[in-house]
Write a structure and sequence with these properties.
Elements lengths: L1 H9 L8 H11 L61 E2 L9 E2 L11 H8 L5 E2 L7 E3 L1 H11 L6 E3 L2 E2 L2 E7 L8 H13 L6 E6 L4 H4 L3 E3 L22 E6 L11 H10 L4 E4 L14 E7 L11 E4 L6 E2 L2 E6 L3 H12 L4 E9 L19 H11 L2 H10 L4 E2 H11 L5 H8 L4 E3 L12 E4 L3 H6 L4 H19 L5 H5 L3 H8 L2 H14 L3 H9 L17 E3 L12 H12 L6 E4 L7 H11 L5 E6 L7 H16 L5 E7 L14 E8 L9 E4 L5 H11 L5 H10 L4 H14 L3 H8 L13 H16 L4 H9 L3 E4 L18 H8 L3 E3 L6 E4 L1 H9 L3 H19 L10 H7 L14 H17 L2 H19 L4 H16 L3 H9 L1 H6 L10
Parallel strand pairs: 1-2, 7-8, 7-10, 10-11, 11-15, 20-22, 21-24, 21-25, 22-23, 23-24
Antiparallel strand pairs: 3-6, 4-5, 8-9, 12-13, 12-16, 13-14, 15-16, 17-19, 18-19, 26-28, 27-28
Helix pairs in contact: 3-8, 10-12, 11-14, 16-18, 17-18, 19-20, 22-23, 22-24, 23-25, 24-26, 26-29, 27-29, 27-30, 32-33, 32-34, 33-34, 34-35
Length: 987
């Protein structure tokens, strides 16, 4: 066919075609109907020009029978396996996929349906003007020609190039109720950026709800990043008057009624055009916190600042208004077009609704208040129904059956209403029927949880049908299943099956609301409602009565609240009770709260085990007398024919340390760690990072005086790390310092890389340490000693040269009391003999010490060990707790390799203690480490090293390693070089 085309073209009398003509012909050929099947000489009719005739447009489907419509959700068995794939797939709604379906995202209508008309409305603002001095230049062609003709010199004549006239700063209010307009605001921003009207478009976020506590601040971006720094509103002031400021807000937050944001509008309106874009429908404007005025605006020049506009009332006196007018616009072409014409100079008058801003602080009284705070639930609903649209009231009835967060509200709205609109949710948010839940004070967007005012939910449920109630509950249960990754079987729930009820009980808010709805349904659902309202057996309420578990060891103090980690405890308990004997590891970043759930688990489920042992991990892993006692008790019960269960908790372990020799019987091992990667054979449970709402709750629990916005900023800066928030909140509560001053001391967080920023817990500890050292200089010695000891429980006797408690009065040591008051230490036991120190606090101490100070602190602690523990008899069981408390600290301060005879005698006594209590494995591990370090410092032939080797050989022989003991006695240096006796890192 191509050959015929070329022949045809070449045979034209006009001569051969150019390459452009050939390209056009080839392009046009692709738009002709396809030729008939088969070669041209097979009897197919041919047109006079050699081409086959065009195919007629089919009037019926090409297939013999029409295909059925593709369902939105189709089961996998609806298409037989033998049917070949046709490229079609079944579709599924997001979150409702079944096996064999293809998930698709359904297209939603645009939030701005008249985008093209909006572009046209803004077109007058795109006028080009002559710029200032520092701009681009262009050639003036006519002047250049005149110069060349007149002078003969070929030099161009340049002139300033016309440029777009105005910039736009889009400032979006970040109040709670504005979140329903996110889609509309995003589309409006995109429209401004792509319309080609403005020189530049900047988007900013206005933190209006925080203006009372922090003043008016802006952040770049929309929505603003949590790491973005606060910016001054003065940055938007353009001295040249070529910047339009558009504030998108529903004008509901309190900062609009107290005059704070009115003064902000005046700041911007004195330098350039400013307007408020109101996303609410016109009928709802009277519910805002503004006093609106119907005025006629006159502009003296194009681009006049609002302070130069002349306003006259359209209702009343014709005298000019002295206050500065700020037009209120809708996201509608009929509202934007006349304002754009006035601003551009196309017209000089504009009839508008405007806010009047005078120079003094003002507190406009809102008009049309929809509710009365003291009204009864019936009156509240009557007022709401009188003002709300029918669809909004219907949605409120549906929402009475669900917990109120904006994602769930949107899910119910999309499914239950025929024409869902953002204004319907906005009407409910502005109705006065809702309050914020205590847990979400200070949060934003989808993290906010609401509740109905007392009695309102019950009134609304009375109008909810049984069919709608069941449908909504099932819808929300599916939504929660998608969020938590475990299926909430709604049908099984209605049947009252234990598993379904227990799973829903983990989501207390949904369980309580569902119980109210089911109780309204009555009949068989009454029993299910009662079970949902009951406190689950695994409840972790801090004040729940109960006996202490039969635990040995020294677990850390119990946390006041778990802050949403209750589902993790249930998951952990199910895993430990399932028969899986693999060690289970709770993993969280340091300071992220892996230990708190383990402590709570021991308190809540310790009674499910015959024995519980808590050990603070260390290298080497030494259980001491407690592990030996557990092993002996399990062996005794096993000999009696029982199968005792036990739980061993290793706090702060790492994979390199390994596990101690475990007892027999039916036992479980629970490990807490900050190391995320564990080898095969360990079951890892990730501790969830706190949500923004949880971070605020943690902060305000320790610093109740903080307002929610301050708590949120502090939680964001410290990454929501529980330990850091506890330290920071305690510091603010004790000192009375402001959150702003504390954040200034922390400084900005690096945006380049998370690793460029110090650990939040260490940062918070550092601020508290600096303050303590200034206020209590005598704490320096104690802090230095803490820095060189092992984390976890620390004997108080090692921290000072005095006794733990003063002889008179029995009061605690004042330095330790101060450190506990700032949450840098915690009391580990009622007797006050031990305190807990976190690795972050130790790290902060070491960062403030020189190498000489570290060495001095180690020597002081070693001397204190010899003085306070050097005379203990290792064979006396009553003294074994003292030895156990000292064990983790021998290695960090260098006692194991010390040349001093008293220190070496302390090590020997400690090995004798481990042998006497029955922990031969721990004795071998500690003895090997001590022998290696002593031989490295004093030599293998030193008398003290020889005595230590003899003791270790006796321990090996007692443990059944006779050959190994003989090799150690014969050649100590060769025994130490054996790879089997090296540490895991090969040292």
């Amino acid at each position: 066919m191509t050959d015929r085309l070329i022949t045809k073209l070449l045979g034209d009398d006009a001569g051969p075609p150019t390459w452009q003509e050939l390209a056009d012909a080839v392009w046009l050929a692709g738009h002709f109907p396809p030729p008939a099947d088969g070669p041209p000489d097979d009897g197919t009719p041919v047109m006079p020009d050699g081409w086959p005739p065009p195919r007629p447009r089919p009037t019926a489907p090409l297939l013999e029978a029409p295909e059925p419509p593709v369902p939105l959700v189709a089961p996998s068995h609806s298409v037989p396996d033998e049917v070949p794939s046709s490229g079609l797939g079944t579709l599924a709604l997001p979150g409702g996929q079944r096996e064999g379906t293809v998930p698709v995202r359904l297209r939603t209508p645009p939030a701005l349906p008249h985008a093209l008309a909006l572009r046209r409305a803004l077109r007058p603002l795109g006028r080009r003007g002559r710029p200032g001095i520092r701009t681009l230049l262009e050639m003036d062609e006519e002047a250049t020609v005149d110069r060349v003709a007149g002078t003969g010199f070929w030099y161009p004549v340049l002139r300033p190039a016309p440029v777009r006239w105005l910039d736009v700063a889009l400032v979006v209010d970040d109040s709670v109720s504005m979140s329903v307009w996110d889609s509309a605001v995003r589309e409006f921003r995109t429209l401004l950026q792509t319309t080609g009207t403005f020189r530049s478009v900047q988007d900013w976020t206005l933190l209006s709800e925080e203006s009372r506590s922090r003043g008016v601040v802006l952040r770049r971006g929309m929505p603003a990043s949590t790491t973005a720094t606060d910016r001054s509103p003065g940055e938007l002031v353009d001295p040249n008057g070529r910047r339009i400021v558009l504030v998108v807000s529903d004008c509901i937050s309190p900062s609009w009624s107290d005059g704070t944001l009115a003064r902000l509008l005046r700041l911007w309106g004195t330098s350039g055009p400013v307007a408020v874009v109101q996303p609410l429908p016109r009928r709802m404007w009277e519910r805002s916190r503004l006093s609106l005025h119907d005025v006629k605006l006159h502009s003296p020049t194009p681009g006049s600042a609002n302070s130069r506009l002349v306003a006259q009332s359209r209702r009343g006196s014709a005298a000019p208004i002295t206050a500065m007018p700020v037009p209120l616009l809708m996201l509608d072409p009929r509202s934007l077009s006349p304002w754009a014409s006035l601003t551009s100079g196309e017209s000089s008058e504009y009839d508008a609704l405007a806010i009047l801003v005078d120079g003094a602080a003002q507190s406009p009284v809102p008009r049309g208040e929809p509710v009365r705070p003291s009204s009864s639930p019936t009156e509240l609903l009557a007022d709401f129904r009188a003002l709300a649209s029918p669809e909004a009231f219907k949605l409120a009835v549906y929402l009475a059956a669900v917990p109120l967060s904006q994602p769930i509200m949107r899910v119910v709205q999309q499914v239950m209403l025929s024409d869902p609109q953002p204004s319907q949710i906005a009407e409910i948010l502005l109705s006065g029927l809702l309050t914020r839940a205590d847990d979400s004070v200070g949060t934003r967007g989808d993290d906010i949880v609401f509740d109905f005012c007392p009695g309102v939910r019950e009134e609304l449920l009375s109008g909810l049908s049984q069919h709608a109630a069941r449908r909504i509950l099932q819808l929300v249960s599916e939504y929660i299943s998608d969020r938590i990754g475990s299926h909430v079987d709604f049908t099984a729930l209605l049947r009252g099956e234990d598993t379904a009820v227990a799973l829903l009980q983990d989501h207390r808010v949904f369980a309580e609301v569902s119980a109210q709805v089911l109780r309204r349904l009555g009949g068989m659902y009454e029993t299910v409602a009662q079970r949902l309202e009951a406190v689950p057996a695994a409840s972790m309420a801090p004040d729940a009565p109960g006996l202490e578990p039969p635990a040995w060891g020294t677990p850390p103090p119990r946390a006041v609240e778990l802050f949403g980690r209750e589902p993790l405890l249930k998951e952990l308990h199910d895993a430990l009770m399932s028969g899986d004997a693999a060690p289970h590891v709770l993993v969280a970043a340091e300071g992220g709260g892996a230990t708190a759930p383990a402590v709570e688990y021991v308190h809540a489920h310790g009674a499910d085990f015959a024995y519980v042992l808590w050990l603070s991990a260390g290298s080497p892993m030494i259980g001491g007398a407690d592990l030996a006692r557990l092993t002996a008790e399990v062996a005794r019960r096993t000999d009696e024919g029982a199968e005792p269960s036990w739980l061993l908790v290793l706090d702060g372990a790492t994979p390199a340390e390994g596990l101690p020799k475990l007892p027999g019987g039916s036992g479980r091992v629970l490990v807490t760690s900050s190391v995320p990667d564990w080898p095969e054979g360990f079951t890892v449970h990730r501790v969830p990072a706190p949500s923004p709402a949880t971070g605020i709750r943690i902060t305000r629990r320790h610093a109740p005086a903080l307002v929610p916005s301050e708590a949120r900023r502090l939680a964001e800066r410290l990454d929501g790390t529980p330990l850091a928030l506890e330290i920071a909140g305690t510091f603010l509560s004790v000192t009375g310092q402001s959150a702003d001053a504390y954040l200034d001391r922390l400084g900005p967080r690096s945006s380049e890389s998370p690793r460029a920023t110090p650990d939040p817990s260490t940062e918070a500890c550092g601020i508290s340490l600096d303050h303590v050292l200034r206020e209590t200089p005598q704490a320096r010695d104690v802090l230095h000693r803490l820095a060189v000891l092992a984390p976890g429980p620390v004997p108080v006797a090692l921290l000072a040269n005095g006794i733990p408690r003063q002889a008179a009065g029995g009061e605690a040591d004042p330095v330790l009391a101060t450190l506990c008051r700032y949450a840098l230490l915690r009391n580990a036991d009622p007797a006050g003999e031990q305190v807990f120190v976190h690795p972050a606090a130790q790290r902060a101490c070491r960062e403030r010490m020189t190498e000489d100070e570290l060495a001095i602190a180690c020597r002081a602690v070693r001397a204190r060990m010899v003085e306070h523990f050097g005379s203990d008899a290792p064979e006396v069981p009553a003294l074994w707790p003292r030895f156990a408390a000292l064990t983790p600290h021998l290695g960090p301060v260098g006692v194991l390799g010390e040349k001093d005879p008293d220190a070496r005698a302390l090590v020997v006594r400690h090995l004798r203690y481990l042998r006497a209590c029955g922990d031969l494995d721990g004795c071998q591990a500690l003895g090997t480490l001590a022998l290696r370090q002593s031989a490295a410092r004093a030599g293998a032939g030193h008398p003290g090293v020889t005595a230590l080797a003899a003791l270790l050989a006796d321990v090996l022989e007692a443990g059944g390693a006779t050959d190994d003991a003989d090799r150690l006695r014969a050649n100590t240096e060769g025994w130490l070089r054996d790879p089997a006796h090296q540490e895991p890192d090969g040292t």
